[in-house]
Design goal:
single chain, mainly alpha, 7 helices, about 0% strand
Length: about 100
Amino acid sequence: MVEMEIILGSFLSTIVARHAGRVHDESELADLDALLREFDNDLYHWLVNVPAKSSLRGNDGDVVPDRLTRNAIWSRLVQHVTASRPAVTGQETVISAAVSQQGA
C-alpha cells in the first residue's frame, strides 16, 4: 500500500537519522520486525483512526491489538503520525478548507 510506504519511509528516515548508524538494541529490532509483519491495510486503518491522545482505540471503536499497544516502535510511529497527521494521512487540504470556512 503506497500510503503506508510513505508513512513508514518518513518514520524510518527519522529513526535512521537519529541513530546515525548505531546498532539498535534487540528489543527495538524485534518490535520493528513485528510491526513490519502487520498488514499495511491494517496499520493504515489503525493509524488514521487513532485519536491524537490515544494509541489504544480507533475513532470507529476498533481496538488496536495488544501486540501493538505493547510495541515501543508502534508507540513511536503513532507519535510520528500524530505530529504530522494532516500531511501523513492526506487530510491537509481537508483541514485547510475547514479552517478557511471557519474564518469566513
